[in-house]
Amino acid sequence: MSTHIGDDSAAERNKRPIFDALVPWLGGACRVLEVGAGDATHARHARERLPDIVWQASDAPGHHRRLVAALADRKELNLPAPLALDVRGDWPAGPFDAVYGANVAHIMDWAAVQALFAGAGRVLAAGGLLCLYGPFLRAGVTPEPGNANFDAALRARDPAMGLREIEALDALATRGGLSLVDDIAMPSDNRLLIWRKSIA
């Protein structure tokens, strides 16, 4: 699925606060799979902030060429060649210590969101983390005006898109053996949600 709506500057703006919150969680990680890597802004920033982690960038097949071009000059061993990943198809062989995605859940249709959680549950190592950043809704809670307007704009563009309720995502996570371990408030009414895969 497409994971972007044309605003690459957003990835540049939000990379520092995201990784400020993410780095403490990924301190012991060796391999991370990024879903919906876009123009590789976060993959490159990950190399600066987490130089010892192998950061595997991926994006949907329709956006893969753009991601390859964005990383054409890569020389770092820990930034392997980016993958084309349709979350509803075959996933790369794990295990990964974390699966990370920024601003992906509201751009995917619900079937793809379900596939994202199921796929992450399969490829994560025991104790691995699924980390999703973006704007989310809460069941029964009036959203912030900015998020309400964004949700309406997404649904007007494509009824299959839209902000997702944290409770609905958590239900998908539970099915995949994942438990919500942190819900971090971020700038501009965004959040960083972190689920951990069961060790058992």
Automatic annotation (TrEMBL):
Name listed for the protein in its UniProt record: Methylase
Pfam families to which the protein is assigned, alphabetical: DUF938
Source organism of the structure: Salinisphaera dokdonensis CL-ES53
Regions crossing the membrane: none
Coiled-coil intervals: none
Gene3D superfamilies reported for this sequence: Vaccinia Virus protein VP39
